[in-house]
# Entry
Amino acid sequence: MAQLKLKDKVKDFRNMHNMPGKVLHLSNKVPSAHFKKIHIPKKIHTFDSFKIINYRYLWIAHAIFSSAFWLQQVVIGWTAYQTTKSPLLTSIILGLDVLPILVGAPFGGLITDKFNKKKILGLIYIYQSLLIAVFGIVAIFGVIETWSIFVFVLLMGLGWSIHDPARFSLMSTVVPKEGLINAIALNSMAFSMMQIFIPALAGLLITFIGIGPMLLMESSFLISAALVTQFIKIPTSNEQEKLSLKKALPEIKSGFNFVASNPVIVGFILTTCSMVLFAIAFTNGLMPVYAVDIFKVGPAGLGILLSARGVGSFLSTILLASFGNISRPGVIGFWILSTLSVAMVTMALNNTFLLGLVIIMIISGSSMGYLNISMATVQSLTPNALRGRVIGIFTMSFGMISVGGILSGVLANSFGVQTATFTAGILLLLFAFTGLIIFKRMRGYNTKTY
# Structure
């Protein structure tokens, strides 16, 4: 294309200046090496992982699960704030379900390494489905109290300590190493797609049918997800020996030893902890407070705010999946953390609902993008035999939502929700720049040369 345009220009120049035809003839003899061809990608990699049938089953199960998850987020968030009238208690409740991950995730990872991953995932879905059904029946009879919300959320959280290591390990089993970023991004896309539609719908349904029937609906979603996971076929070579209780602690320790020996993994885990603590915990736990006290938009508005988070996450995952492999994940990650920090500060200074929706999209998109890159990088550096345990250690960072929930609630109670968000944004920005200096191996990590 570049050569053709050059020839046309030479011909036009000859005609304009009455030059002999030899000029055009000579131009044909110019070596093509002198002209750089424009590189046009021959293939878009956005949906590469969907070629794997086992991954498609896993994706469908996760999409169904995500519908249940976002339904619960709206129901529990709204019920908690209406019951307690306290930003502190609401933040604690919305972060309490990940508290067991701080302690239980490494054990969940070990269980994942030693048993059939798809059966574990299916059992967790059934456990949570039964728990939600019981709570839904309690809600129908109108006897929900603050203590019952705490108990329900904590019991739900016990399942997360096994669910996340099992799901991510199963993904690594059915998808090759070079396709992990694409697979994880598409998996997050399912989560984000449901976040776009379900919260807004749930906000409306609260008014019309109440929270009890909505919880029963969530229970049926999880049963469906459990059934779909059973269609996944795991190669026999990936089945591990049975777990010995005597060797449990040494086995878990081996996972920690491996993580400690790899500075790149250490860097990604610690930066993920800071992002979860200051960004996800604050924006997740304080959304009901923003909806009621700042934007004054009610439950429908809360659903729209959460849906805006879904739009941001969806766009982020589509962009990330299209890139395929990222050669410098550490550098890209630090830029994402900086963008996230600035967005949080902007959110704290804003009082307009429509602008708040845009800011929430940026916050959510940045958070999801960083989580995907971090998780994919850690998995790609981990051997199969240790993957469950290492993922369990990584997902301990999600437990920081509980710590952040308490911190955000205390700050919001004492100084207001916007001051709390502003403080968290500044702290995250400081941590991002500090991490850029401290975690040199993470910053210099290159997937093409490692």
